[in-house]
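User: Fold this; tokens only.

Assistant: Input:
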Amino acid sequence: MPTRWKKIGIIGGLGPLACAYFYTRLVGLTQADSDSGHPEVILLSSPDVPSRLAHLLEGGPSPVPALRRVAKRLERAGSEVIAVPSLTTQAFLGDIAAAVAVPVVDMPTAVAGRLRAVGVQRPALAVTDGTRGAGRLHQALTADGLTPVYPGRHDQAQIQECVSLVKAGRSQAARLLFRSLASAPWVAAGDAFVIGCTDLSPLLPDLPSGGHDVGDLYARAVLAHATAAP
């Protein structure tokens, strides 16, 4: 346990449940023997950030100005490292990082490195259409020597439907649908099932054997970045 943590800022609301759940993972993964052993965390859930998916898939309003504004607010509040716990939003990581002087933790790079470190070679990815289209996670995985496995069109549409249900507050319906997808045939083509969207993370807290959640992988990376030298 470090003698001092860097203050962690979280760009929240991407979506709200995903970021709330991500914070619980930060707490659960922190090695501390008392309240005072945890890092200071500033979570700013800003509802005015335009949909990242709508921008990437349909040419909707750009979320960049709002994301940059939230990052600057976190920096002004004292954040020393910033987390963006949304793989889809990583498409705009460069724009966010350019707005602040503190480091913004790269999620695709962190996920790829940690999957490789635990021996995963063919991750079966449950990701959004936006994450697939942007390609940042795919590039990070292949750069680390991994071969991503994706669902076909029907199951991909079902995964996207799960995300839409979560954002609409219908988590129970999303949970039932997502559990069926986790055992779909395409998953067997990989060597590890990977929840690749933090909106989906709360739907399957008990991962199947050998499974991984990008929220957990990213939380570990953020904590590593926030570890200050004694």
